[in-house]
Prior knowledge:
By secondary structure, the chain is α+β, with helices and mostly antiparallel strands.
Amino acid sequence: MNCAPWSAERPILHEFELTLHSPSGAVLQTFRSRAGFRRVEVSQRQLRVNGAAVMINGVNRHDHHPDTGKTLSIDEMRAELVSMKRHNINAVRTAHYPNDPALLDLCDELGLYVIDEANVESHARHDTLLASGTFDIAVIDRVRRMVQRDRSHPSVIGWSLGNESGHGAVHDAAAAWIRRTDPSRFVQYEGGFNPTFGYRGSRELREQAPNASDRLISDVVCPMYAPVESIVSWATWATNSDSDDRPLILCEYSHAMGNSNGGLAEYWNAFLAHEALGGGFIWDWKDQGLRESDHDGRQWWGYGGHYGDKPNDSNFNINGLVDPDGLPHPGLEELAWLARPVAITWADGVATVSNRRSHRSLDDVDVTWVVEVDGIPAANGDLDVAGIIAGETASIGCAIDLAPIGPGTATLTFTASLGAATAWAEKGHVIGHDQVGLSHGELTVPVPVPVAADGMIEPELLAIVERAVPCLWRAPTDNDRYAMGGTAGVGVGRLWEQWGLDRLVPGADGTWQGADGNEMTYHRIVTAVEAGVRVDETFDIPEAWHDLPRVGIRLMLDRGFDELSWFGLGPNESYPDRKAAQRVGRWHTTVTEQYHPHPVPQEHGHHVECRWFSLSSRDGTSSRFGAIDNFGFSARHNTDARLAAAPTLAELHAGDETEVHIDAAMRGLGTAACGPDTAIEHIVGPGTHRLSWTLEIIRR
């Protein structure tokens, strides 16, 4: 039988009918269903489906609904999977138990690869619980039932023996049974690699040779939360020495707790640079919070400890890419961009288009381009990418006349979208974008001008400048609060509290003292310039404050200034280690819309690499803040103090004012709550920091 194959990109299913007849020929029963046909292989350090290498952009998924707990309808499951597909996710790990067969039916239909995981989970007891042999029969039985129930689903490409349950003889036996029963799929189990491979420390590479014990239980190398440098080291060793022919696919990485997923681009850069790295599964898909309301009807998300449960894990299950209702957190946008199926660069009139798909051409993709100067469109057109087959890179003529562009910051942005509707998205749904800088406009240094005869700067300008005070603190993120899990230690935020960065006391000589007795020296120079004022600030940070959340200034403005515009990275928030999905442009929104409702309130809404931003009132008056060099900024109605003090959304009350931050430096987000902390290059250290900005008042 010659059947079109199934894959996540082309989930072709074939309907079939089985009829049971009696010996006399009478029909006893008829069964109708759908089947997909595909081939899965693990070889030469790659995962292959139908012969083509596949990059896993996966998520770990728990059954969860904010109102019904672990019970979901088929429509609710479908909505989750559709959202995944719309964000370029192609795989699900059923952490940590087999899911409802209806979910597998939907994965077959929509096109998602599945790692089906047995309900074997010991968590903190993973090194000891299985040592006695008491649970051996249960483990074998659970693995066997999972395989026998789910083996007809084409979406299931691999079996997982469980999670965090150590490594014993029972795992070897379970893996052997699977390989004998179903040799068409691979087996994986992180218990052979954790804790020695992951974030708790890396073993010597020589111990990962083909005869290592982990080969008995895992056909892929699947550690959790291994740092980028660790997996790159493994890939280099495995490739150069040819000592391990398995791919490395992270079973869990980039822990998405709160405002998180810092450093995700570094993982994807490694995935794309090393064939032996086959991607991974983000932890995890959805915040596991329960819907609650206070006496005023304000909705909030309940978590550990809110129900009289002691002990509890507090908010440690609030760690998804989407909130309990499915609202995407900012990290999901970053993931979707990094996993975009089309990547485009441009130089000298030629666009280089890479089709990152494994099984589908770009015939169904439309690409448009636009040239903008200082964020204002100057030219546009289409790019024909039809005919570029899976895995191919093609060069396409794309001549753009740069002569009339003139001075300013010019960018060329390509946008890829679906050319036809699918089961999970409408025609025109954007699947990716790429931006090329054509010219980088020079920042204009304001020229000082004489002040008025009385030596005074315009009072309105001076009043705003005088509100600005130095700020070295932010409302801690979950990654700031924790270090590798709520029970493992406290994060850098505890140091900030001990140093008193949230309550610096000004001295008479330009010093600002912390609670630990150390002092920062701060100097400000205000100069009148043609359009307003220029402010130059210097921050001398003591060596004792070796890891800061930010260095900048904070000022309060009346809430009436709610209209927000800026030129720089956008349209959404960005941080030093989570900015890949943003692009240079001129953006317009409101201060109110800067708010993101993390179930546990925390730092959010920052923008890095900006040239200017303005805040406008309804009467048309604008305060425009400009950069002498690029700066970071945020503007929110929820102050840092309110965010830090509120354990849930019900306790968070926006004020009547706008809190504005202008920053010379901002710490990255990292994933320290359960995984690697912020990379050293995104840590804000001591020493001298400088910030220069301008302010002008514009009236219509």
